[in-house]
Amino acid sequence: MATVPEPDAALAEAPAPEPAVAEAPPTAKAPAAPKAPKGKDKKGKDKKGKDKAPEVLGDAPSIAAHPRAARSVAQAKAWGALIGFTLGGYLSLPTHTLADAGLRALAAGAVLYVAAWAGAVFAWRRLVMIEIKAREAQVLAAVQTARERQSAGAGGQGARGRPGAGMP
To answer: What local confidence, expressed as pLDDT, does residue 86 receive?
Structure first.
């Protein structure tokens, strides 16, 4: 059984006014969902099949949103696959069958593709964090020099000409 909470003393003294308009029953229909913008299907993709640009989620740094990092990771994956395919095919030539050499070349290309992707993402995660810390240091230095200039320009007095009214 559900217990009913007791009303407050202030609410118990004054009777609640009845609404002039009857409330909608709880089974009323919800408002219609907004329609997708023209030129896009229900999933947010263009009709031509191209996805939207990658979005940044929150304030966390993203390698996909970093222009140099995204390009570099894509190049590393391509070079890794190409080198893996070529090296795997060349080393598999003594098997005397073209099908075996091709299969091994594809496998080696796939392995080096994944390894190059993992290595590039690993490196760029650290580089992006280093860039963020360097940028924070630049902003902090600029703020400190601006504060020093402001305090030196005021002649040691506060912002409104009163001693002690400025920043510490």
So the answer is: 96
Residues 6+ apart with CB under 8 A from 92: 100, 101, 104, 105
For 40, the 3-state DSSP assignment is strand
CA 69 – CA 55 distance, rounded (Å): 15
Phi and psi for 48 in degrees, rounded to 5? -75, -10
Tens digit of pLDDT for each residue in 119-144?
999 999 999 999 999 999 999 999 99
Please provide residue 46's backbone torsions phi and psi, each rounded to the nearest 5 degrees. Answer: -65, 155
The pTM of the full predicted model, rounded to 2 decimals, is 0.52
Enumerate long-range contacts of 62-65, CB under 8 Å, 24 or more apart: 63/121, 63/124, 63/125, 63/128
79, with CB counted inside 10 A (0-12, 13-18, 19+), is: middle
3-class DSSP assignment, residue 46 = strand
Residue pLDDT, tens place only, 26-56 = 555 555 555 555 555 556 555 555 555 555 5
